[in-house]
């Protein structure tokens, strides 16, 4: 019998209360860490995502349908920008031509994280989509991104 343990009436050993408390604390801390990691990876598909700013990825400027997302000048030709709050990615494949898609990857629902090299990129499993039409360039996704309607009014990109 380990030092400091007690024997219960049924013959099993029971550790002192402070050992149980430490074990519970460690288990709780481990579960909290796992939950935090899952949330950071965007596993819920709720739009939480990755990315920075500018042409390579995320921005927080978002709005409901009909509101301005950004100035058209903020979307680089041949690139795009992810708007996490609006769950949309806006691209400019050619000068003056804008496309927009859902920022939710069709593979597992992760938020796309960046736009570079003519593709919209998902950080979770490596799927890539064309900025011109949202079609799959690199699996594992096998469905294109859902198209969104945008217009340009007074130099601003608007969700239609």
Automatic annotation (TrEMBL):
Cellular component terms per the entry's GO annotation: membrane
Looking up InterPro entries in the UniProt record yields: Rieske_2Fe-2S, Rieske_2Fe-2S_sf, Rieske_Fe-S_prot, Rieske_Fe-S_prot_C, TAT_signal
One Pfam family hit: Rieske
Q: Where does the Rieske domain lie?
A: 67-159
Q: Which CDD domains match?
A: Rieske (cd03467)
UniProt cofactor(s): [2Fe-2S] cluster
Q: Name one GO molecular function term.
A: oxidoreductase activity, acting on paired donors, with incorporation or reduction of molecular oxygen
SUPFAM superfamilies under this entry? ISP domain
Q: Alphabetically list the UniProt keywords.
A: 2Fe-2S, Disulfide bond, Iron, Iron-sulfur, Metal-binding
Q: Where is this region: Disordered?
A: 1-23
Instruction: Give the highest taxon in the source lineage.
Output: Bacteria
Describe the function of this protein: Iron-sulfur subunit of the cytochrome bc1 complex, an essential component of the respiratory electron transport chain required for ATP synthesis. The bc1 complex catalyzes the oxidation of menaquinol and the reduction of cytochrome c in the respiratory chain. The bc1 complex operates through a Q-cycle mechanism that couples electron transfer to generation of the proton gradient that drives ATP synthesis.
Which protein are we looking at? Answer: Cytochrome bc1 complex Rieske iron-sulfur subunit
Q: Which organism is it from?
A: Actinomadura latina
């Amino acid at each position: 019998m380990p030092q400091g343990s007690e024997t219960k009436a049924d013959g099993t050993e029971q550790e002192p209360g402070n050992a149980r408390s430490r074990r519970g604390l460690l288990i709780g801390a481990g579960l909290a860490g796992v939950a935090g990691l899952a949330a950071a990876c965007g596993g819920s598909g709720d739009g939480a995502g990755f990315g920075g700013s500018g042409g390579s990825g995320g921005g927080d400027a978002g709005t409901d349908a009909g509101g301005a997302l950004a100035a058209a000048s903020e979307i680089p030709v041949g690139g795009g920008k992810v708007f996490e709050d609006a769950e949309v990615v806006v691209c400019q494949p050619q000068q003056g031509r804008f496309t927009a898609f859902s920022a939710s990857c069709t593979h597992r629902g992760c938020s796309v994280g960046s736009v570079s090299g003519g593709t919209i990129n998902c950080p979770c499993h490596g799927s890539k989509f064309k900025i011109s039409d949202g079609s799959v360039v690199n699996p594992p996704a096998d469905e294109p991104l859902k198209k969104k309607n945008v217009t340009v009014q007074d130099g601003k990109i608007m969700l239609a």
